[in-house]
Write a structure and sequence with these properties.
The chain has helices at residues 57-63, 137-141; strands at residues 7-10, 13-16, 23-32, 37-45, 67-74, 77-84, 88-93, 108-116, 121-128, 147-151, 157-161, 165-170. The longest helix is centred in the middle third of the chain and has 7 residues, at 57-63. It has two domains: 19-90; 97-170, Roll (SH3 type barrels). It is built from two helices and twelve strands, in the order ββββαβββββαβββ. Strands 6-5-4-3-7-11-10 form a seven-stranded antiparallel β-sheet, covered by helices on one side. By secondary structure, the protein is mostly beta strands.
């Protein structure tokens, strides 16, 4: 008999399901298009198909359309909801997972001001992973990923949904 935690009782021994995928929790603050901001964590795979090491939150968000699970921490209780990716305005991480991108140290850094659909303005830096001469802010704007990193001066890493960007402009260095 299978139990809720993906184990099976076999002769009074608990056996893990072959379909179980180990996940780790990554703390984040999610801001939705409705204005709701929730603190909790993402469930991230221990390995990535795209690079060595664990999956990143941006990979999870860019991996497929639809819903993803998010564990909410609210007044002493914890529960899991499913959020629609299209309605996620941005995610704030304390860990700078952007630094794990291949080429991070050599990518062109552009300082930007971003106006979001909720009226909030974000000032930070983006990395443009393109060859010299094709590393303008407009090249960053044409990248295919929906969710993109923005690093702020206070060391916060944001993952912003480009569908909610109204304008982006280059600014002087932070």
């Amino acid at each position: 008999m299978w139990t809720a935690d993906n184990t099976r009782d076999v002769n009074s021994e608990r056996v893990l399901s072959e379909f179980r995928v180990e996940k780790r929790r990554t703390d984040a603050v999610v801001t939705l298009s409705s204005g709701l901001t929730t603190q909790g964590c993402f469930f991230i795979a221990g390995g990535s198909a795209r690079h060595a090491g664990p999956e990143r939150v941006a990979e999870l968000l860019n991996s497929e359309p639809g819903f993803f699970p998010f564990e909410i921490h609210f007044v002493g209780r914890t529960y899991t909801v499913l959020y629609n990716r299209n309605q996620v305005l941005m995610v704030a991480l304390t860990d700078n997972e952007a630094r794990g991108d291949p080429g991070y140290d050599v990518a062109t850094r552009r300082f930007v001001s971003i106006l979001l659909s909720n009226g909030q303005r974000i000032v930070g830096a983006v990395r443009v992973y393109r060859p010299e001469g094709r590393d303008r802010l407009s090249d960053w704007a044409r990248q295919p990923e929906i969710f993109r990193y923005v690093e702020t001066a206070d060391e916060t890493t944001l993952i912003i949904n480009v569908a909610h960007i109204i304008e982006v402009s280059e600014v002087m260095q932070l």
